[in-house]
Hints:
The chain is α/β, with parallel strands linked by helices. Helices cover 34% and strands 24% of the residues. The protein has eleven helices and 13 strands. The strands form three sheets. It has a six-stranded mixed sheet, with helices on both faces. A four-stranded antiparallel sheet has the order 2-1-4-5, with helices on one face. Strands 12-11-13 form a three-stranded antiparallel sheet, with helices on one face. Helix 3 packs across helix 4 and helix 5 runs parallel beside helix 6. The chain binds adenosine-5'-triphosphate and magnesium ion. Adenosine-5'-triphosphate (ATP) binds next to helix 1.
Amino acid sequence: xxxxxxxxxxxxxxxxxxxxxxxxxxxxxxxxxxxxxxxxxxxxxxxxxxxxxxxxxxxxxxxxxxxxxxxxxxxxxxxxxxxxxxxxxxxxxxxxxxxxxxxxxxxxxxxxxxxxxxxxxxxxxxxxxxxxxxxxxxxxxxxxxxxxxxxxxxxxxxxxxxxxxxxxxxxxxxxxxxxxxxxxxxxxxxxxxxxxxxxxxxxxxxxxxxxxxxxxxxxxxxxxxxxxxxxxxxxxxxxxxxxxxxxxxxxxxxxxxxxxxxxxxxxxxxxxxxxxxxxxxxxxxxxxxxxxxxxxxxxxxxxxxxxxxxxxxxxxxxxx
Length: 320
Ligand SMILES: Nc1ncnc2c1ncn2[C@@H]1O[C@H](COP(=O)(O)OP(=O)(O)OP(=O)(O)O)[C@@H](O)[C@H]1O
Ligand SMILES: [Mg+2]
């Protein structure tokens, strides 16, 4: 579906992509997860034929994104981070216009609009000006717009930025239905919970793919559990742990370590360490933990992981 080889993109001084290889399979939900400035939008834009690569090749459905640009454009739907719908028009009229733009006759365009609005649960809100819809409804309308041409592949760039958690779940539930119906979905995000809905995830940092696998396999790479401690003196605790064969992750504001068997080692730490511990949490590794381990820094963005203990257990979100 998508085949990327040796992709390099240079802007004046910045090398935004530094040799990216990846392949997306048909019907797959594929996430590109990384922090601000990692190169996500750059890769998205090249695949969506909006920018040309400096080196390397990218093919979508077998068409080269440069020489086969028009064929790629016919086969894809795009959702941008920025709104593309006309806010003064109703949702229905937005879709109708898209349909006409793609060469459908009026009756067919109307029918297509109704189909998509119903499918996305927007039928009731479809006749109001788009600007009066909720943030979540407007994002779904962006998705609806991308579906008018019945694309085989969807490209989404930070499609839910700024939405609350419930609206994001609703959005991804719809995307999952589209994928279940056989469409391929390539999306970028810096929310790790969103990447969890993907079949496979590429972690991108500073223009390079640092890992590519299923969410489960990525987390399994860390092995065991993640222990977080809050103590009277984290620097001293860090030193003590290091001296006792437990290597805390370097960097980061919090004291965190990955261990194959937290339950076996924690009681001894709490008993023997001469620094007072205020809080302990043990969690399954998150994608953020994996990213931190691989790159030495977090995903950042506007949904930082709180330093305190997080809701326990694996959180697969509600959209799978
Ligand atoms: N048109 C441009 N001209 C110069 N530099 C650019 C341009 N677009 C992006 N960059 C730089 O390329 C790098 C990658 O940017 P890109 O927008 O691809 O990142 P991103 O992963 O999408 O980040 P974000 O999460 O903030 O959207 C950044 O250092 C950015 O400043
Ligand atoms: Mg971006």
